TrEMBL record:
Membrane topology (UniProt): Multi-pass membrane protein
Domain ABC3 transporter permease C-terminal stretches: 305-423
Pfam families for the chain: FtsX
Organism taxonomic ancestry: Bacteria, Bacillati, Actinomycetota, Actinomycetes, Micromonosporales
Record's subcellular location: Cell membrane
Transmembrane segments: 27-47, 301-323, 344-377, 397-420
Entry's family note: Belongs to the ABC-4 integral membrane protein family.
Protein name, per record: ABC transporter permease
Database matches in InterPro entries: ABC3_permease_C (IPR003838), Macrolide_Exporter_MacB (IPR050250)
Annotated keywords: Cell membrane, Membrane, Transmembrane, Transmembrane helix
Length: 430
């Protein structure tokens, strides 16, 4: 063990001396290897950032991994009281009910009829359904003339849903569930709805099916919820000031959803109550990472294969430089053999040079990638939410170090064998 450690130390010292005495050749080796190691580091870092971007978009709509989601149709009048009574006052569960709302001039047809995106025109007449689920197209008389009004989906919340879905604030503030309910419902718009109200000037008058009268809403904020359709969020207790019990679930929408923490008793209680009235809920646990794992892994392997090809070019470069260096140092190695230097130590000297070169190159590639990522986050972090708070992934650093070591071993293996095979008689010819 002592002999091995001594040889290792000798190989490292002589290898460092060789690098110092041949700076230009070492620099050429590092240049040929730098792009290969950089490609591996960039691919690994890019895969981590791409995974973060994919999951960030999915979390907006599906929720954080581990969130329990219960969905059920809203056509039955029994759904509303069961759901709202069960989650009332709970901090580990939030109910979301959806309905259509029109904000603007009364008695007119909205500019985005049907509540679609403001950049799309789907055509056709919207459908209307009764409490039994029977649907039909609205007649021209029911639609009214074209006017200054915007149709959107109105989602009523029993609590702060951001503990399950990380809506990104864009302007203003989120709903305050700790304050006293107000008669003028406070709305938080999504980006598509905010675009519509910025494009069209409409009166602040909101009508909701089943409401006792039209309301005057207050816009308090804008969030990015990942929905391409206009949507607004409102506190359920503020909406009940105008919409009577039994009308909070719109049969035209059928949107009733409960988000819960894992392990909460709400799931079991709510499931039992719904099944007692012949309503079968659909329950699933959000696991976006596992669902996207195969696609992300395939993408990562494809780019790693491409980076591996670039790395092989760097290995070929360091191999050529290593063979040329050994050819120039034949007399030196023969002399070392003549004074008793073991063949293993000669091979270790050559491998030490290539390994040190590989590690230095890996350090430069990792440093360059980390600096580039920091600059990207600084410049584009505000416009790209998934870049906010991104740090250089340690997996990319480990991949860079491994790539540098592998390149050093592959590029120095053949020169090391050649150096170890130089005969002692060569020194006599020098």
């Amino acid at each position: 063990m002592i002999r091995f450690s001594g040889r290792l130390r000798s190989a490292l010292i002589i290898g460092l001396q060789g690098i110092r005495s041949r700076k230009l050749r070492t620099l050429l080796s590092m240049v040929s290897l730098f792009l290969g190691v950089l490609a591996v580091v960039v691919v690994q870092a890019g895969a981590s950032i791409a995974e973060r971007a994919v999951l960030a978009d999915m979390e907006l709509y599906d929720g954080f991994d581990g969130t329990v989601v219960m969905e059920m149709g809203g056509s039955s009048p029994k759904v509303e009281p069961i759901v709202l009574d069960t989650v009332a006052g709970r901090s580990d569960a939030v109910a979301m009910t959806g309905m259509q709302a029109i904000i603007g001039e009364p008695g007119v047809r909205p500019v985005n009829q049907g509540g679609g995106s403001f950049d799309d025109s789907w055509g056709g007449s919207p459908m209307i359904c009764d409490e039994q689920g029977n649907c039909r197209e609205q007649t021209p008389a029911e639609l009214g003339p074209q006017g200054q009004a915007i149709e959107l989906r109105l989602t009523a919340l029993t609590g702060d849903v951001r503990q399950f879905r990380p809506y990104r604030p864009q302007a203003g503030q989120w709903l305050d569930f700790t304050s006293v309910p107000m008669m003028a419902p406070r709305l938080v718009l999504n980006k598509e709805a905010a675009k519509g109200f910025d494009r069209y000037k409409v009166p602040a008058e909101m009508r909701v099916p089943g409401a006792s009268a039209n309301m005057t809403p207050q816009f308090v904020g804008v969030v990015d919820d990942g929905d391409a359709s206009p949507r607004a969020y409102v506190r359920l207790d503020e909406l009940t000031q105008w919409v009577p019990a039994g009308k909070l679930v719109d049969p035209n929408m059928g949107e009733v959803r409960v988000l819960m923490s894992s392990g909460t008793p709400v799931e079991q209680v709510l499931t039992s109550k719904l099944k007692a009235v012949n309503i079968e809920p659909y329950v699933h646990i959000v696991n976006s990472r596992e669902e996207q794992e195969s696609e992300l892994a395939l993408m990562r392997w494809i780019f790693l294969a491409m980076a591996g090809l670039v790395l092989l070019i760097g290995v070929a470069g360091i191999l050529n430089v290593g063979l040329a260096t050994v050819g120039e140092r034949v007399e030196e190695f023969a002399l070392r053999r003549a004074v008793g230097t073991p063949r293993a130590l000669l091979a270790g000297i050559v491998l030490a040079e290539t390994l040190i070169t590989g590690l230095l190159t890996a350090a430069l590639a990792i440093g360059a990638s980390a600096a580039a990522l920091k600059a990207l986050v600084t410049l584009a972090g505000d416009s790209q939410p998934f870049l906010q708070g991104v740090e250089f992934p340690w997996e990319a650093g480990v991949a860079g170090v491994i790539a540098g070591l592998v390149a050093g071993v592959l590029g120095g293996f053949v020169p090391a064998i050649r150096a170890a095979g130089i005969p002692i008689a060569t020194v006599m010819r020098a």
